[in-house]
Design goal:
By secondary structure, this protein is α/β, with parallel strands linked by helices. The chain has two domains: about 35 residues; about 200 residues, Rossmann fold, CATH 3.40.50.150. The protein is about 40% helix and about 15% strand.
Length: about 260
């Protein structure tokens, strides 16, 4: 009696397919991704309803932090920047605020298409704010091949919301390609004030001095932290660090600013 060969692929039963799909749906990665997409949609909708066009507001930009804004205003006043560069546009509030305060051109990139389109809509009337869609590393590499390479630039780095943490690559490009710059990194720890918020994505991926000091040393960057106590800050109360080349003119200016202390 002949026996039919077993086919190489069997059609799975409805029960097997359902079990497979449930396993996938119940995975941590799936729900993390779903949670992220819902958050993006909520942020987009809330912004469209509450602020469809950017208007300068004390509660918007730089996480709504009055102390952070004062640091930026001091830097813009004491140092004659040529332009501002931001990684991580989000909905455009910080790009709008930097332009509002400095009256200088602002260049900003955003990796999320919805946030990029939303920022373009909200900032459409500001012709000196230039927005691009893409990764922060590609964006900075592109600027490094443009005339902006010769400019004195304030960099605001805030493109670390996803699994990728591009800060090291961003800083290498800036340090290698620009002669004069000041960098502010959002969501960085503020030692010794542990109450300030900072991003922590696991071992080797936290925005802390312990993680990034070796890189700062290799790039010869001096660190400056806010002097404002946590309880006197407003908004999100997220930490930050300001970086400049050691022994530079910028470092000598920052050494005299009341709102920052060198570490």
């Amino acid at each position: 009696m002949s026996v039919d060969p077993v086919p190489p692929f069997r059609k799975k039963s409805l029960l097997a397919r359902t079990a497979r799909n449930l396993t996938r749906w119940l995975s941590i990665g799936y729900f993390s991704s779903l949670k992220r997409r819902i958050w993006v949609l909520e942020q987009t909708l809330d912004t469209l309803l509450s602020s469809p066009t950017y208007v300068p507001d004390a509660a918007a930009g730089f996480n709504g932090q009055a102390g952070r804004k004062r640091i930026f205003e001091s830097l813009a006043r004491e140092l004659q920047f040529d332009c501002m560069v931001e990684t991580g546009t989000f909905v455009g509030n910080t790009a709008g605020w930097m332009h509002h305060v400095s009256r200088l051109p602002v260049y900003s990139s955003e990796i999320n298409p919805r946030f990029h389109l939303l920022a373009r809509k909200r900032l459409a009337s500001f012709h000196d704010i230039h927005l691009e869609l893409g990764t922060s590393v590609d964006f900075l590499a592109k600027l490094a091949e443009s005339p902006l390479k010769e400019k004195f630039v304030f960099f605001y780095l805030d493109a670390h919301w996803y699994k990728d943490l591009p800060l090291a690559s961003e800083l290498r490009i800036i340090s290698d390609c620009w002669r004069r710059f000041v960098v502010m990194v959002d969501d960085f720890e503020v030692p010794p004030d542990e109450r300030y918020g900072f991003d922590d994505y696991g071992f080797g991926h936290s925005l802390t001095v312990r993680t990034f000091r070796p890189l700062f040393e290799r790039l010869s960057l001096a660190m400056y932290f806010p002097t404002l106590p946590f309880e006197l800050e407003t908004g999100a109360r997220s930490g930050c660090v300001v970086l400049v080349r050691k022994d530079s003119e910028e470092a000598r200016v920052l050494d005299k600013l009341d709102g920052l202390r060198r570490c």
